[in-house]
Amino acid sequence: MASVCVFVETAKGKLKKSAAEVLGEAKRLAGGGDVDAVLIGHGVSGLADDVAALGASRVLVTDDDAFGHFSVDGFGAALSKAVATSSPRVLLVAASVVGKDLAPAVAASTGSALLADVTAVALNDASVTATKPIFAGKAIANVSGNTPMVVVTLRPNVFEPATASDGAAANVESVDAGVSKADLRTIVKEILALASEKLDLTEADIIVSGGRGLKGPENWHLIENLAEAVGGVCGASRAVVDAGWRPHDEQVGQTGKTVSPKLYFAIAISGAIQHLAGMNTSKCIVAINTDAEAPIFKVADFGIVGDAFEVVPVLTEELKKLRE
Length: 324
Ligand SMILES: Cc1cc2nc3c(=O)[nH]c(=O)nc-3n(C[C@H](O)[C@H](O)[C@H](O)COP(=O)(O)OP(=O)(O)OC[C@H]3O[C@@H](n4cnc5c(N)ncnc54)[C@H](O)[C@@H]3O)c2cc1C
Prior knowledge:
Layout: E1 4-8, E2 10-11, E3 14-15, H1 17-30, E4 35-41, H2 48-53, E5 58-63, H3 72-86, E6 90-94, H4 97-110, E7 113-118, E8 120-123, E9 128-134, E10 139-145, E11 150-154, E12 172-174, E13 206-210, H5 221-230, E14 233-236, H6 238-242, E15 263-267, H7 273-279, E16 284-289, H8 296-299, E17 302-305, H9 308-323
Parallel strand pairs: 1-4, 1-6, 4-5, 5-12, 6-11, 7-11, 13-14, 13-15, 15-16, 16-17
Antiparallel strand pairs: 2-3, 8-9, 9-10
Helix pairs in contact: 3-4, 5-9
Bound molecules: flavin-adenine dinucleotide (FAD).
The site of flavin-adenine dinucleotide has 28 residues, from helix 6, helix 7, strand 16 and helix 9.
């Protein structure tokens, strides 16, 4: 029995970045004790050594063609079965699109408390405690779970990822979820991915976001050039997405994506509360705005009061020189 168990996510035959984050936090919580990891999918057994290299003492694998695509009933049943084998005090899951669907299902089926989208977690004798932003990031709540197992989802990009050690061989146990394709109530037939291979905003270390102050989509080369210069990805405010200048998958905020990159550029974005809700846990925020009173400056670590059309090209050139 391990005190901490994690669900590791995979995509396109690889572990997702969040796998290293949940394992990094699991090892810290376990304080040198064992950590179990659960791997579910079709053709995922070969990833068990990668999971062990990130610090899992035991890898519980459910590998079956019923799990070729994520479905909450299938993965929920498989993960509930695996945690019955592991009997952990805490189950850690990334607060990703999949994790936000899966964790509540497992919490409900195992009668466990759920602490969702947390930015810090601690394991105490009597309870599991965590902190999480609430009311669109206006306040931080301290929450605790007192059930025998507590399910916790970790906000992506907040927790220190585990680093892989060489040559780890996994202690693998196969778990039969007792689920076949015929048992699934929802079947994902096909996933239509965007043609581009761009990194998802929630996984990016650097995001360059633009707002309505950029006047139109024809000026987006300013954002794209800066993003390229710093190795980042492009984001946008809702005003920009609603205007059809940028696709919805780039929207940051309450009704867009919640991101926590190492570096976030907010360019010609006012900093409305709904935008801040999606990015105010970024580690370093740089704001560029003509209005010195814009609310974005209240959360910015660095601010430039100036015209983005003048500032951004100069900044891009200077940052390019630094990277040469
Ligand atoms: C229920 C609800 C959900 C919402 N969800 C989201 C969400 O998920 N994400 C989100 O972003 N918003 C969301 N909003 C909308 C939000 O309230 C704001 O309307 C939106 O964020 C404004 O976008 P903006 O900052 O780009 O535009 P504006 O508020 O118009 O700000 C433009 C900024 O650009 C500056 N500027 C102008 N010209 C220049 C220049 N040349 N150089 C530099 N700066 C310049 C201006 O000073 C201004 O601060 C939501 C609103 C509601 C009601």
